[in-house]
Amino acid sequence: MRVIRLEETSSTNDYLRSYLGGGEDMIVCARRQTGGRGTKGRTFLSEEGGVYLSALTFYAALPVADAFSIMTHAAVAVCLTAEEYGVRPQIKWPNDIYADGRKLCGILIENTLSGGWVRASIVGIGLNVSNDVSALGGTAVTLRELAQRPLDAEDVRRSLIANLLRETTLKEYLARVGFLGQTVTVLEGEESYPATARRILPDGRLEIETASGRRALSAAEISIRV
Ligand code: BTN
Questions:
Q1: CA atoms within 13 A on the CB side of 67
Q2: Which domains does the chain have, with CATH numbers?
Q3: Which of 10, 96, 117, 148 is most buried, with most CB under 10 Å away?
Q4: Does residue 15's CB lie within 6 angstroms of at least one atom of ligand 1?
């Protein structure tokens, strides 16, 4: 696997876009990003000391219906990495990683589709290691704080890449999802309402239960607050 290491770039996801025509899987990492992007058009603070990387993967035959496996794989790889440092993170569906009630890692997945197939994916991972997250007002946490010892972002990056290159299973993902059976707040368009999170379906939708019954909703339709 080709791994490109950069001091700085605007966004490792954006950097890989120019390789979409090539057909070669690769990973790009940066020590810092000047224009890190999160989901839903948000920015992602990317100070030195964190791990910022994106993996470009081409697929010969991955149906769009199975695209959830891209998310589960990335989320499990991050959890396995944190676990190597004695930390027990939880996955907040679909693919934020939390520990101690605060966000440890965000994942931004950008797929290239054609017909009913995923042709390529760019999976961007931003993992807080030793970076300064104080600007995020207590909503974020670093691996260093959780592990209670100094950590080198380069070591964590190597471990994350190794975990991205191994096989993972849906079972490993489901074992780490944090809030099933609990009441969550569902944010759907302009509305927000309480519901019990029941289960994750194989296609990645979350089944929720309210007084009017059960419904399965995709991450494109709702977000949840736990
Ligand atoms: C989120 O929490 O909303 C997702 C954050 C994803 C951040 C990573 S850092 C590496 C890659 N490059 C980006 O610009 N974003 C992703």
A1: 21
A2: 2-176 (3.30.930.10), 183-225 (2.30.30)
A3: 96
A4: no
